[in-house]
Structures are given as C-alpha cells and as structure tokens.
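Hey all, quick one. A colleague (J.T.) asked me to put the CO-5-methoxybenzimidazolylcobamide job into the tracker so the inputs and the structure tokens live in one place instead of scattered across chat threads. No bug as far as I know, just bookkeeping. Sequence used:
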Amino acid sequence: MDNYIEKISICIQKGKINMDSPYPPDMKGLPGADELTGEALKNGVKANEILTGAMIPAMGIVGELFKDKKLFVPQVLMSAKAMNSALVHLKPYFTSGEIKRRGTFIIGTVAGDLHDIGKNLVSMMIEGSGWDVIDLGVDVKSEQFLEAVKSNPNAVLGMSALLTTTMESMEKSVRHIRDLYPNLRILVGGAPLNSEFASRIGANLYAPNPQVAVEYLNS
Ligand code: B1M
C-alpha cells in the first residue's frame, strides 16, 4: 500500500502523467500517476489516503522546489498535469450520486489566476457532499461570477486565488457582487489568503481547505 503512495507521490513530483508520456525521460515506458492511482484504488488503497498521503504532500514538495528555483514553470506544469490525471480517478469516490442535492455552489479561480488544482479539489469535495456545482473554471472575471449568480440567486459563491497579485481581483469581484447581492453567501480560499482578508473584502468565510468549505455549506 505504501508502495503505491510513494510511487504516486514520485510521479507527481517528477511530472509523470501516464505510461505514454515521454516525460521525464528517465521514466519513459513506466506507469504514471494516472495508471498507478487507478491500480491503487482497485487494490483497496483509500481515495483519501491517496489524496492526503501522496498527492497534496507531493505538490507541496514541488512548490518548495519551485520557490527555491530548483524547478521551473514547465516542470511544475507537468506535475500539475500528473496531479489532475490522478484526481480524475478520485472523483467518483468523492461524488457519489446517492446523496440528496442540498443546493447550488458556484466556484471559479479569480481573474488573472490560472491555478486550478485546489479549486478542482474543493469543487469535487463539495459536489461529493451533495451540492450541485457550477464550475466557471480559471481566470474568471467579476462579470462572469455575476452572470452565474444572476441565473442562480440562491446559490453560494466560492472564489479561489493562489497569487498575492490576484487577491486584488478577488477583492474587486467580491466587492462588486456584494454591492448588488448583500445577502449572498460568499466563501473564499487559497493559500495566500486569511480570515482578516476575507472579512475585510466582504466575504462570509475564509476556508483554508475543502473540509472547512463543506462544513460551512452543510451547516
Ligand atoms: Co504557481 N505559484 N505560478 N503554478 N504554483 C504558486 C501558487 C507559488 C506559491 C509558488 C512559489 O513561489 N512557491 C507562487 C505564488 C506566490 C504568491 O503570489 N504568493 C506561484 C507563482 C509565482 C506562479 C507564477 C506567477 C509563476 C511564473 O509564471 N513566474 C505563475 C502564475 C500563472 C497565473 O496563474 N497567472 C504560476 C503558474 C503555475 C503553473 C501553471 C505552472 C501551475 C498551475 C497549474 C494548475 O493549477 N493547473 C502552478 C503550480 C502547480 C503551483 C504550486 C506549485 C502548486 C499549487 C497547487 O496546485 N497546490 C504552488 C506552490 C504551492 O502551493 N506550494 C504555486 C496544491 C493544491 C491542492 O493546493 O491550490 O493551495 P492549493 O489549494 C488548497 C487550499 O489553498 C484550499 O484548498 C485546497 C486543498 O487543500 N483552497 C480553497 C484553494 N482554493 C480554495 C477555494 C475555497 C476553499 C478552499 O473555497 C472557494
């Protein structure tokens, strides 16, 4: 079991997506995050263990190496692709259709920001806890959030930002939408944010992780 966790972690750190992927050259012909995650699940490894034991720590290591300039954007992108290929296998485990729908949740990564792994994870967990999710993708402008809210006035809105620079566009979007929809529930998340920032810009909650977002929605 540990073997799968370690192998999946290595694939994400090295950006090995699947068997066909020629990158990285020293892993050519070997299974990638895609196949190993599928196999691990078939062999009884729990989805949550793969997520918290392999995938999230592996991206943390990638982030540290990136910060120290030991990895560069194309390599980080390959790691992100490997992570997303593994996430596809986990989705059914977090989104069983048996749960009664509780409401609608709109989510997007704010304008200027292309990071979507955390947002996808939040979206998956929330869908899994019984919400219909409208995922607007990345680089979402205020107007796009607004359109989605107009069409779903009882929805809860969620925004993700991973860059200190895009915290500004989050602020702009939240303030704009808050002016028009004073009672709308808005939650925000992403590594550079905190609770003070969330309340200053008029969001109802800062969720440091998907679990906090799910608890808030279900409360
Ligand atoms: Co970027 N990047 N990146 N990057 N990247 C960071 C965020 C960075 C911290 C790396 C570093 O320097 N150590 C740094 C930001 C510094 C800062 O501003 N504070 C950074 C930078 C600088 C950049 C570029 C500017 C680099 C450049 O071009 N010079 C550039 C910007 C592009 C853009 O967006 N316009 C860039 C590009 C990229 C890639 C495209 C290569 C790739 C993204 C691919 C993709 O997402 N499809 C990438 C990646 C992968 C990262 C790191 C390595 C990993 C991010 C990630 O996916 N983490 C990241 C370093 C790091 O985080 N350690 C980094 C895993 C994910 C599960 O965690 O996203 O934090 P996270 O989500 C968490 C929580 O935050 C929370 O729940 C999730 C699960 O626990 N959460 C929410 C997130 N959203 C939420 C919403 C909620 C609730 C909770 O409710 C709505």
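Adding what we noticed when we looked at it: The chain has two domains: 2-96, 104-218. The pocket of CO-5-methoxybenzimidazolylcobamide is lined by residues 56, 59-60, 62-63, 66-67, 73, 76-77, 80, 107, 112-119, 121-122, 158-160, 162-164, 187-192, 207, 209-210, 213 (CB under 6 Å).
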